Amino acid sequence: MSVAQGVDIEIESENITEYRSLQKGDQIAVEGEMSGIEYYHHGIFLGHRKGVADFGGNNKRDARPRIVDILQFTEYGKRRLIRLKYPSGQCLPPEVVVENAKKLVENPDRWGVYDLLNNNCEHFATKCKTGVAVSRQVIDSIRKCIMNPLQAIRYSVASSGSCGSSFSGSLTKS
């Protein structure tokens, strides 16, 4: 079942400074940077004392759906944490979001191998949250490359990095 109808819906983000404000089923992300390009690494908050489901690993070849501690996800508070806020009616219920994430962690072969453009951490998190696997960061980056072909060179260098890297996208900060 999917809720999201398109990739051009406006999604806001909210800075999270206290982990206790997180709610089960939240789509969260942390800032990162690789080769001068900023990106967000996405996951689904499963609940306090339960961790975060994300799609990652030590490198792209061993990337898989997994559960990590919130401290590991934020690199012990070194990476800024945000919560994505979708418009009303664009998300699945929190219990379904958590169940979707757990099912993919329990059966990682159902998710597939890492691919920056087609199957990254944001695809994973939006699939769990909305039912549709979309990476707005990838879409936004492709649009930028069309407008400025030299940008494609920067992105190709960044895409050769460690797992969890994808491009910063169309999030608005609240």
TrEMBL record:
Protein name in the entry: LRAT domain-containing protein
Cross-referenced InterPro entries: LRAT_dom (IPR007053)
Gene3D superfamilies: endopeptidase domain like (from Nostoc punctiforme)
Domain spans labelled LRAT: 31-137
PANTHER family membership: LRAT DOMAIN-CONTAINING PROTEIN, OS05G0310600 PROTEIN
Pfam families tied to this protein: LRAT
Alphabetical list of PROSITE patterns matching this protein: LRAT
Organism: Potamilus streckersoni
